[in-house]
Amino acid sequence: MQLLEAKEKFIQQWGSLGSNWGINRTMAQIHALFLISEELLSAEDVMEALKISRGNANMNIRTLIDWGLVYKEYQAGERKEFFRGEKDIWKVTQRVMKMRQRQELDPMLNVLTQLQTVKSDKKNKEEVEAFTKQIKSIKSFAELADSSLTKISGSEENWFLKTFMKFMR
Amino acid sequence: MQLLEAKEKFIQQWGSLGSNWGINRTMAQIHALFLISEELLSAEDVMEALKISRGNANMNIRTLIDWGLVYKEYQAGERKEFFRGEKDIWKVTQRVMKMRQRQELDPMLNVLTQLQTVKSDKKNKEEVEAFTKQIKSIKSFAELADSSLTKISGSEENWFLKTFMKFMR
DNA sequence: CTGAACTTTCAATAATTTTTGAAAGTTTAT
DNA sequence: ATAAACTTTCAAAAATTATTGAAAGTTCAG
Q1: Alpha-carbon distance A167 to A86, whole Å?
Q2: How far apart are alpha carbons B70 and B151 in whole angstroms?
Q3: Minimal CA–CA distance to B130: which of A9, A53, A3?
Q4: A37, A65, A153 from A68: Cα distances, Å
């Protein structure tokens, strides 16, 4: 396989992976492009490489910066902005987990907490009890996931790998 | 909060969680409905509860069955099919992980393996080396994720919790 | 200050994904 | 074999999500 073909293939595959991960296809493709580019890239470079519009490139690069997956950098003597991607796949994973924790798990936990306050009356006592029990069990699980994510996203790769290997043995 | 309102809220929230998880909104809502329903439900019941069409209900129930999140059951003396949801949230998580491993991680690993065969020539030797190195590091990570998922999806909740607690300490 | 170089915004448009519902298919009781 | 009860399919329609590109905004050198 030729390098160009391989790069293209990687970008496509990363794009489709991303789209199952709350990351839109183009954003994931831009991220893939950064993952395999040694050099700094400008918005223009991204537009050309992926054949997308200026607005689209700008918006998705911005979001990638918000996620901590791409950094803005200045190139001496250039007016234009340049970007570089986070290459460390472990850090990438941590950032994505953190972001999804905030966007998904935290709202879910809020709702689950509210749902525990459901009132029962004599008519539906049993039904309410069954409901509350199930909500409680989902909430416990969500809390476990939440604290694990918090721990993991603050940890070093080494710590993680070492402990994880033990865990998996 | 009233029970009905609480159920409605749970279904909505689970729906929006699902839509970030490669599970479409309606499928996730149907799943939520099953999570909080003690009784068996027919396709008709689901249609009514969520105000969706027959085709939609049928298709999504079928997919939930494929995912192992809903079971078909027969009610004595009834012609109609009835369904019951998997209530154990740990099992639900295992099934979802397993499914996503198959649908996302495995194809990714295949592509990564292919990409390692990229040919270099004198002109782009260094570029190919950098690319191969990065692909290799992504692949190692993906393999770690893959084997962890395989281990986790086959394990008992108790084993998992116990080991995980140790891990998180 | 001015204008060139660059970035951001956003309404219109396009692409994708989901839903509907009627028709076709299947199963079962008689 | 028939027909009623039920399930599945799928093309068309609706809803949602992503993309474009031109216009507005910003920054900075001269």
Answers
A1: 28
A2: 23
A3: A3
A4: 17, 5, 13
CB contact under 8 A, B6 and A151: no
Query: Among all chains, which residue has been given the structure tokens 């909104």?
Result: B25
Rounded CA gap, B33 and B23, in Å?
15
Q: Which nucleotides of D are covered by protein (CB under 7 A)?
A: 5-11, 17-23, 28-29
The SS3 of residue A41 is strand
Q: Which of B155, B135, B23 is nearest to A169 (CA)?
A: B155
Q: Is the CB of A58 under 7 A from strand C?
A: yes
Query: Which nucleotide is at minimal CA–C1' distance from A22?
Result: D17
**Cβ-count burial of B31 within 10 angstroms (0-12 exposed, 13-18 middle, 19+ buried)?**
buried
Q: What is the pLDDT of residues A85-107, one digit of tens each?
A: 999 999 999 999 999 999 899 99
Instruction: Please give the single-letter amino acid code of residue A97.
Output: M
Average pLDDT over residues A101-130: 94
Interface size, chain A vs chain B, as Cβ–Cβ contacts under 8 Å: 110
At position B38, the amino acid (one-letter code) is E
pLDDT tens-place string over residues A58-80: 999 999 999 999 999 988 888 89
